[in-house]
Amino acid sequence: MKVLVYWPFTRMRGIVYFILSAVTLPVYMLNLATALSLIGISSYYSIVIGLLITVVSLLASAVHVVIYEVNAMVYVPSFTSITFFGMTFKIPTISTQSRRTMISLNVGGALIPVTISLVLAYLLCADYPRLITPIVVSVVLTSLMVNKVSRVVPAIGIVTPAIIPPILAAFISYMAVAFTANSYIFVTPVVAYITGVLGTLIGADLLNLRKIIDIAPVIADIGGAGTFDGIFFTGVLAVFYASLVSTL
User: Fold this and answer.
1) What are the residues facing 87 on neighbouring strands?
2) Count of CB atoms within 10 A of residue 107's CB?
């Protein structure tokens, strides 16, 4: 296993990233704190933990853990020169090259939110076993729907409309809990966070992994946009939307 440390945002993009992070950090913190308070953690500790997770996620956006490496064949256009009667002609040809692609997991944008989701799922299911079904149903449905709206763009990566996954996660989580475990509707924001994170990871990243490998980038970084990656972003926004739906 390799650990790479590099910052994907340079110059102006890096400055914009930090400015946006500073502006949205309180929102991230409060949404995480909301999810933590719903599983029984006191308000004070929920805010402290939410702030700590958000700051660490931001700082850890530069850390990438390589979990898998694969060799892929890519087609490379080239030209072959042929001289005929003193004239040189260039004939376009296509050759194949073997390129090694590293599959990595961004610590701040993927590893931390996924770990939090798994811990929250364990705590919820331990206290409320009836929530196992709505959590599984929500994650599966969200994964499938997020996969439908995501696409792989060469030289960019996986592109997903930013606002759709968190809304899907919040709505599907609310409906799943309401229909299968209505007495636990108050923890819907927590289910939405779990659904948003895991649904985006599975639907946008894992189900498109084969397509990413086919275009053979040097590195395919899951969660590479850090706190603005779909995995992290969807989780915290899903809490907000689920809280909003629950109050209606």
Assistant:
1) 84
2) 22
The pLDDT of residue 85 is 63
Cα 186 from Cα 174, distance rounded (Å): 10
Q: Say which residue the tokens 């895991």 belong to.
A: 198
How do 87-106 and 219-222 pair as beta strands?
A: parallel
Give the model confidence (pLDDT) of 83-115 as tens digits.
766 677 677 766 666 677 888 899 988 999 999
- For residue 35, what are the CA distances in angstroms to 9, 51, 187, 206? 30, 13, 8, 25
Would you say residue 22 has pLDDT above 90? no
Query: Please, which residues have CB within 8 angstroms of residue 237's CB and are 6 or more apart in sequence?
Result: 31, 166, 196
SS3 state of residue 218: coil
Report the C-alpha gap between 189 and 237 in whole angstroms.
10
Helix (H/G/I), strand (E/B), else coil: 162: coil
Does the reported pTM lie above 0.70? yes
